[in-house]
Amino acid sequence: MRIKLIFAFLFVANFLAAQPYKNIKIHEGPSAGGPEEPSIFISPKDTNIVVAGANINNVYYSKDGGRTWVNDKLESRYGVWGDPVIIANEKGHFFFFHLSDPTGENWDSEEILDRIVVQRSKNGGESWNRGWDIGENHPKDQDKEWADVHPNSNNLICTWTEFDDYGSKDTADHSRILFSKSWSNGRWWSKPVTISDNLGDCLDDDNTTEGAVPAWGLNEEVYVAWSYDNKIWFDRSLDGGKNWLENDKVIAQQPGGWSQEIPGIMRCNGFPVTVVDRSEGPNRGTVYVTWTDQRNGEDDTDVWIISSADSGKTWSDPVRINDDNVAAHQFLTWLDVDNSTGYLYSIFYDRRNHQDNKTDVYMAVSKDGGKTWKNQKISESPFTPKKGVFFGDYNNISAQDGMVRPIWTRLENNKISVWTAIIYGEK
């Protein structure tokens, strides 16, 4: 009888462990035209408050840790044209960064993408101010921004790609990585400076400088990595963005480049993501950069991570985050660190379980500074993308005080929808 009870207990325990996390649909669009490119952030002040955004102007907020959501539309004095980035400071103020569309005429206007826009919410995403602008430089195009907030000073930093003329085939037109900083809670921004040494093209492809994601260090350090010429490039400042390395550093190769071919996906980028461990744990101050590439073949896209314990002077060898042993695609990844523990959380699409284009969503967790990873399927069911449907350039994930909220898009019944999962790690 005792043996039977033990067997039954183990069966139930294994069964429960194998169950997917509770998936929550945040928003379903009316068609395959969006929403996509979701961003999410948990309030450092109150983890019950979670704010998210998605293309083109969707904003969502939750007051119960992501179990239920209110959907709204974002408006600004400079228009809204996607690439949503959500972050929050220690006061619980949220910031929504996005691209501009001042005339509201989209691509029919020459003024679209003339600046980066940031809007602030002091009430957990319920309402937003009219917005402040960063880097207005018409007729050049400002695109693919990301941002971070300092945990102590609350100063904001933003990096993005400036195109002389987005999509231009003219070899005289170039792209570059720009940086700006705000000391005023987002109201005023420093004059943008170019931090990339190399000039890329304007084709939004492998030879374009793009995908810059900045991260504050423990004090005034700023770290940025981006993709260009099938490599991951890195620059840093030790004085809050005043001075930068004399020469950018190549910290990793990126076979397959920025633009990666994934069956059924209209466009897939190998977005490099930079984060810093600001916990009190053993890896405090470590800089991490993650990305995807195809070094193992065009039919085997993988997620990789490197780390630096000396402010970017030296870097570890790449570690593969996905732990499958078959040739399969893992793509559209993102990374966050829970600064209460130093644990790393990675999200990515994954096809290890399927012979066709069916796609799951996986999360990987590292408790040892990125050396080893535990992979877990977090989507309740797979979906099948269509080549003609735009899935955006990224998914996202946020971790605070043992609470983890990933966010992704899926296609079902020819409709794009945005999802999260209710996940708790360890404090």
From TrEMBL:
Residues 1-17 form the signal peptide. Pfam families: BNR. The keyword Signal applies. Keywords: Signal. InterPro entries: BNR_rpt (IPR002860), Sialidase_sf (IPR036278). This is Exo-alpha-sialidase. It comes from Salibacter halophilus.
